[in-house]
Amino acid sequence: LMSLVYSRCNVVISVSRKSQRQLESWRKKYDYDVMVLPTGVDPLPRPSKAQTKQFREDWGIALDDQVFSNIGRIGAEKNLAILIPALKKILKTNPKARLLYVGDFDYLETLKQLAAESGVNDRITFTGRIPRQELGAAYAASDVFVFPSVMDTQGLVVHEAANAGLPI
Fold first, then answer.
1. What was the pLDDT predicted at 16?
2. Closest to 74 in 3D by CA, of 65, 83, 61, 66
3. Alpha helices, DSSP H, located in 8-155
4. Which of 53, 104, 109, 158 to pair with 24, CA 20 to 30 A apart?
5. CA atoms within 13 A on the CB side of 88
């Protein structure tokens, strides 16, 4: 059915080569052109050292904490709950590890409950939604960006994290 719908279009836009291959594999009976048009992200404002320090202070993150962050929409499909047992394992050999969730959405309360039941809740920080112009400080306060999603089609936050110089 999608091939029929797409065959009526001038062009079908894909956000990656991977999705282009998938869309092209659906062409059985109907033909259509697929063009890759990646979605870019605008760079975030670079925070000053004082702004990054203030972000850490505001959220109770010690200067020597090693921060594993996830920044983005907090949805169940993002596989974010897996980070909590991962943190438990990391803490066995790295007691300075801290997990930072920045964002909001319908899975936030469930994730907070899982954290409360984890036994490591004191090493997990939830900021909720932060205005875009202040996100640079969240990235700068992080040591590693963690992205456990297996469902994202674009993963724009991965581009933001890379632009901020974080390992992913």
1. 84
2. 83
3. 17-25, 49-58, 83-93, 108-116, 135-140
4. 158
5. 12
Residue carrying structure tokens 């984890």 = 118
Question: 95-130, pLDDT tens digit by residue?
Answer: 999 999 999 999 999 999 999 999 999 999 999 999
Alpha helices, DSSP H, located in 101-168: 108-116, 135-140, 156-163
83-93 helix and 108-116 helix, angle to the nearest 10 degrees: 40
Q: Tell me the two tokens of residue 144.
A: 């590693």
Report DSSP state, residue 117.
T
Q: What is the C-alpha to C-alpha distance for residues 106 and 89, in angstroms, rounded to an integer?
A: 27
Smallest CA-to-CA distance from 102 within 56, 39, 63 is with 56
C-alpha–C-alpha distance, residues 166 and 139, integer Å? 8
N residues, the chain = 168
